[in-house]
Fold these 3 entries.
Entry 1:
Amino acid sequence: MIILRKLANRPLVKLLVAMIVALALAATSRGAEWTNLRIGDPFPRIRLPDMAGNPVTIPDDVRGKVAIVHFWAVGCSSCRDEMPAFESLLDKYRKRGLVVIAVNVGQRKNDIQSFLKALKIMYPVLLDTDGKAAIRYEVTAVPKTFILDRDGVIRNKIVGEATGELLQKLVLNLL
């Protein structure tokens, strides 16, 4: 019982439990509108603040670009490995129309800032503090990455970690 109490107080465990409960509630109360995102579907519209508090609307604000939308959390080792690969891709293909947006799920801004600074991440990070975007995009675990075409249509979904090589291949097919 003591071990369970200690685990329950860990931020990542709290986040995962909250996401699972919220996803279950959303699935029962919202119906098909909130579930079953498939390749070829338009990316559902949502508005989130960036780290400076400015609102960003996806997919509207990335229309005309190939977009990588990456859901992540501090403490996710796969996210720590992937995020520099996104930065590298962006450096190579920004001029051809690539954008990267990272969506942090349910964590404190101070923790996020330290993480980003350590990894030297410069692309936009949005804050999903209440986890509603994660629910809408069926993020039951992180990392989860969507690759959108220039019209805001989902062309790839990656659940779990992806290599830089795979990401490059998927992005190049759309640029």
Note: Confidence is low (pLDDT under 50) at residues 25-34.
Entry 2:
Amino acid sequence: MPHGGCQGLYPDPEAGCGGGVWQQDKTFGRADDKEQDCCNDISCHLKNGLFEADLTVEGTTFADVIGTINVQSWKGFDIQHPSKKNHRLRYVCLEGPEAGVYARGRITGTNTIHLPDYWRDLVDAETISVHLTPIGANQGLCVEEIKWGTQILIKSENGTAIDCFYSVYGARKDGEPLIPEYEGESPADYPGDSAQFSIAGYDYGPGTKG
């Protein structure tokens, strides 16, 4: 069931038949090349954001498409574990309905959080939210004012010296706001500007969409 221009995906031979991580276009073969998959019984292709598969079990072939799996693409990284031998560490990116940015840190002996200067032009000041965690004792902390999108003034209601951790979040203002939910069958149906996004499995080059 090959498709022209599809990306062939095959099971990892080192993990055994039907197991392990699905690898893409390495030494295990490509689309149209069933001779190279690990058990010679699975051929899986990526088309329109969905995986389609032909499966042969005990000599019986289930023709055409027996089903589709809507695979969720997570952005992240996979690195050698920094402290455990023969281990790896995999993280995925925080996701949400906006192009969010954040800054975090600690302030001691001052009432002002200084955000990077570029926040003025990058972040919509109306979307900024602030989380404060007092250190050592309750200090009655609250946000007194946000100035120019780059300075946050903190107030201690009980008059104690300020010592706290902070996390500040905001949404980017460059580009269109994200449309989290939309009607369609694939990312090609996104009603906004797809040029500002990188979606796994899709190439939004000049003159193309999906």
Note: Residues 81 and 210 are 36 Å apart (CA to CA).
Entry 3:
Amino acid sequence: MDIKDESILIEKLKDGDHSAFHRLFEEYKKMVFHYAHDLTGNFQEAEDISQEVFVRVYNGIKGFRHESSLKTWVMKITLNLCRNYHRRRKIFSFLSLSQESQEDEDEYSFEIGVQDDPAEGIYQRQKLRILRKTIMKLPRKQREVFVMKHLKEMKIKEIAEVLGCPEGTVKANLFKAIKNFQTLMKEIEQ
């Protein structure tokens, strides 16, 4: 979405235009859900957080100050809700991926481009499961920047805006995350 389209959409949202909100929802629903799932490791919590994100966007859009892009604002709301989810439960590390249901795996099969070959689909799901499990082992700050950079393909500047920290801090956490991720993957391969 370019800046002009985004500005028009924001104005329509502020005016209470329901079709504009539907457009925003359609534009960001997968991104929000996947980001929440990547941070929580829990399908149901990701769904609940996603719903809450859009409730907060709807209720808070009139206060949107254009200090960042709409995408950055939505990602920041998602991140804060994921952090709150863990604070409420006094959990300092994210939930184990082993708690995910079969429904969760089936829900993601469309994301990995499962072909007509069932064996290839099983192989792809297994790779995805290993990647998610490895990402979940990263410390929280490293996981957040790793997910935003490599799974959500955000720029360092956008990540810094979402996290409310300097770009140098993002780069440092990303560097550590990549090193830790590589180490964890080597352990799995052995």
Note: DSSP finds nine helices and no strands in the chain.
